[in-house]
């Protein structure tokens, strides 16, 4: 009988010295893939996000516990050890744990771990196989390297807020941040990818290496086509509200009872769209026959479409568009998202046992392996929950 295959990162041990979002999100990704992630926290307070509430996880009597929803979102499948790095004994204990780990993740300010002897230069000679990932606001060099960096300010500095929000000439126009900390999340994803690449390379060379990741760098890279719009044209894109800079019609439309999204991605879909709205002649109009021409003539096309789409309900239009292959959909609140039949079918709401709350909800990891599925082995740990266990494991107690 064939033995079941192990999780992709089974046998990999990760030391997580990070807090808040980008680093913990990266470490959670690795933990979901099977790595043993040891989260080091300050005694008494722990990760800053433990106090970022309400909301907090509620116990079986409906009372708030000490675990914030924010903290729970990025720390499942880990073990927590509470150690004071500022003491020689604490720093030495973490160094010993690091010596038996494959990966170390940290997001201290540049040079912040040197005073504890836990920076890469202090570890690399004794731990040549260690993959050491530093996450900072601006990277390890450059004129801003010593400055703190937070998601919100990077969204502004990195250009996202110049292209997000309603146009300046429209009511409510002006800069707008994204509704989730996208810079931290994308940095966590880049960090996960960088670590996986370094682990793969180590299989060939036998050597670890240092990874320097900056929120600003990841944010600029995330802008994708918008940066290339500028780099190829010399014109910086501006805010377009809920419209697309490079595709028309591809935006939010008001219907008679609410709003919907129509995402017409090519000329064939535009022909289907025009047939569905009972205006087939628009698809052969020289002004709109190709996407390039629709962009040039956006100001005449969109008002016509807005008037047409306002004549029926959202669901009537969705029912007309879906059978002919026009991408479209509603704008849902998060409670509606989890009530959606597709989200239910994909089981994106998970629950794991929790010592304080009975159970703790968690959003499913979107990775779907055929033979080594993601396992939800552990709840996000309570502060120092595994301290004694880990100290014994590493011969420190």
In short:
Keywords: Transferase. This protein has 2 domains: 227 residues, Crotonobetainyl-coa:carnitine coa-transferase, domain 1 (Rossmann fold, 3-Layer(aba) Sandwich), CATH 3.40.50.10540; 90 residues, formyl-coa transferase, domain 3 (2-Layer Sandwich), CATH 3.30.1540.10.
Into which percentage range does the β-strand content fall? Answer: 15-25%
* Rg computed from alpha carbons, rounded to a whole number of angstroms: 25 Å
CATH superfamily of the largest domain: Crotonobetainyl-coa:carnitine coa-transferase, domain 1
Provide the structure class: alpha/beta
Strand order of the largest sheet: 5-2-1-6-7-8
Secondary-structure element order, N to C = EHEEEHEHEHEHHHEHHEEHHHHEHHEEH
**CATH class group of the largest domain:** Alpha Beta
Percent in helix: 25-40%
The total domain count is 2
Number of helices: 16
Distance between the termini: 41 Å
The best one-word shape is elongated
Strand tally: 13
Q: What fold name goes in the CATH topology slot of the largest domain?
A: Rossmann fold
Oligomer: single chain
Instruction: Specify the CATH architecture of the largest domain.
Output: 3-Layer(aba) Sandwich
Q: What characterizes the major β-sheet?
A: 6 strands, parallel
Mean pLDDT: 96
Question: Which residues sit in consecutive blocks of at least 5 with pLDDT less than 50?
Answer: none
Region (Disordered): 44-64
GO molecular function: CoA-transferase activity
Pfam family, one: CoA_transf_3
Organism: Orrella marina
């Amino acid at each position: 009988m064939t033995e079941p295959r192990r999780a992709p990162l089974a046998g990999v041990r990760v030391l997580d010295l990070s807090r808040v979002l980008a680093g913990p999100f990266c470490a959670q990704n690795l933990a979901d893939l099977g790595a043993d992630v040891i989260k080091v926290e300050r005694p008494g307070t722990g990760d800053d996000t433990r106090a970022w509430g309400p909301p907090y996880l509620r116990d079986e009597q409906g009372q708030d516990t000490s675990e914030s929803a924010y903290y729970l979102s990025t720390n499942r499948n880990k073990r927590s050890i509470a150690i004071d790095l500022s003491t020689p004994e604490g720093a030495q204990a973490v160094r010993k744990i690091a010596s038996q780990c494959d990966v170390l993740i940290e997001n201290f300010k540049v040079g912040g771990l040197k005073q504890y002897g836990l920076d890469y230069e202090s570890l690399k000679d004794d731990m040549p196989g260690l993959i050491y990932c530093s996450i900072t606001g601006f990277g390890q060099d450059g004129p801003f390297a010593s400055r703190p960096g937070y998601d919100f300010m990077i969204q502004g500095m990195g250009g996202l807020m110049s292209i997000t929000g309603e146009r300046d000439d429209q009511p409510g126009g002006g800069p707008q941040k994204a509704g989730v900390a996208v810079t931290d999340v994308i940095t966590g994803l880049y960090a996960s990818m960088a670590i996986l690449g370094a682990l793969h390379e180590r299989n060939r060379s036998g050597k670890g290496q240092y990874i320097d990741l900056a929120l600003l760098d990841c944010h600029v890279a995330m802008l994708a086509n918008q940066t290339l719009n500028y780099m190829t044209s010399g014109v910086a894109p501006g805010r377009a509200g809920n419209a697309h800079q490079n595709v028309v019609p591809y935006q939010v439309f008001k219907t008679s009872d609410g709003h919907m999204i129509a995402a017409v991605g090519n000329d064939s879909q535009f022909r289907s769209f025009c047939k569905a709205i009972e205006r087939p002649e628009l698809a052969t109009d020289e002004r709109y026959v190709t996407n390039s021409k629709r962009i040039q003539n956006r100001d005449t096309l969109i008002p016509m479409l807005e008037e047409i789409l306002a004549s029926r309900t959202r669901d009537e239009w969705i029912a007309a568009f879906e059978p002919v292959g026009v991408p479209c959909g509603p704008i849902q609140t998060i409670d509606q998202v989890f009530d959606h039949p597709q989200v239910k079918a994909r089981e994106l709401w998970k629950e794991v046992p929790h010592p304080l709350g009975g159970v703790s909800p968690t959003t499913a990891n979107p990775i779907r392996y055929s033979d080594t599925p993601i396992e939800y082995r552990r709840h996000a740990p309570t502060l120092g929950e595994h301290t004694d266990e880990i100290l014994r494991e590493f011969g420190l107690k």
